[in-house]
Amino acid sequence: MSEQSVPHDPEQPDTPAAAEADPAPLLTLREPMPDVVETPEALRAVCEAVAGGTGPVAIDAERASGYRYSSRAYLIQLRREGSGTHLVDPIAFDDLAPLQEAIGETEWILHAATQDLPCLREEGLSPSALFDTELAGRLLGYPRVGLATLVETLLGRRMKKEHSAVDWSTRPLPKPWLEYAALDVEVLVELRDLLAAELEETGKAEWARQEFDALRSFEPTPRVDAWRRTSGLHKVRGRRSLGAVKALWELRDALAEQRDVTPGRILPDSAITVAATHLPTDKGSLLGLKGFHGRGAERYSSRWVATLREVAELPEEELPTRAPRSDGPPTARAWADRDPVAARRLQHAREAMAALAEEHSMPAEQLLTPDSMRRTLWTPPRTRDPEALAAAVAEQLRGYGARPWQVELTTPLLVAAILHGDEPVPEPEAPQPDAEA
């Protein structure tokens, strides 16, 4: 039951003493810790066990974010009723096609599916159906939807999270890390059942089904001009310095990919912006800069300097501009100056969207992505016939990837915002003369 629908118990007074309840007991494994699956024989045994189980399969994957350049899985955890928990080392196998065959058409349960689906797909694993417990929590309006929070809220158990940021490419993996990983799938089945029941109770089960179906084909959006996400970029002045940030970022990225380490372990963003600000063209000046440091600062100093020299010789027209090129609408704060009518549409839509989100107890961005809303309101269909406009807006939203339930809920809201924005702004009334004067 979400926070919005929890009834107040009159026998539990709202006092600090009542709020200070004993902490929830720790979640523990129900069965002994399984061995890590690293051989073909062990994988065959796991496949037989999974195929012989019942109900959905809980799946999770551990990556080495912050340590490795790649986003591949370094451990895969599975649990199914009647099968138990299994820990599979994907590094030991060319692919996991036998496991995919064993799972078959069985529904997957994941938490934050967009994080794990790409790396699982690399191993030959792809769901025919899935249930995302994090997304279910968002649809139900839970204010915090992390796995540990949902488990404590709905199942009354605490989860340890001290190994969430470890290097999962380590071999052999320490036993405490493996226990932590196994606990991530320990109660996913129970959590799924509680959330599914609440989705039914609140009339959101069909919305969730559409969202889960869309997730099955999820692909990460390629980052355009990813170098612009360099921390501290806003402090860099001038197109040539921007060009230096871009060139150094791209060189660092290539080195990181080659070595399979996270880019920040070669050179931190702060070192890139320092070098780009001062634009030194010899090794001594570069290494003497305060703030130019990192494991690869001196090791690759010749390449950093060569890159800065290349940037120094680039024609002005080949240097990047401050504002990135975009095929979308301008930032919302620029609408009032660029198109006051569109700005009125956006303001009206935002207010209506906030009210609709409150009505359905979920974040506004879950009803419709902000990008889809802005694109629709910046360049709306030309017709102003309400019926034709509604059909055109619905088609536009479908083109942006909105699900049927989102189109149904938000199309009337956007149509009203478009028509409202086109209405002339009334002239302010002239001040009335003072009667006594």
Automatic annotation (TrEMBL):
Matches recorded under CDD domains: RNaseD_exo
InterPro entries, per the entry: 3'-5'_exonuclease_dom, Exo_C, HRDC-like_sf, HRDC_dom, HRDC_dom_sf, RNase_D-like, RNaseH-like_sf, RNaseH_sf
Keyword annotations: Hydrolase
Basic and acidic residues composition-biased segments: 1-11
MF (Gene Ontology): 3'-5' exonuclease activity; nucleic acid binding; nucleotide binding; ribonuclease D activity
Protein name as annotated: Ribonuclease D
Domain HRDC intervals: 238-318
Ranges of compositional bias, category Low complexity: 14-24
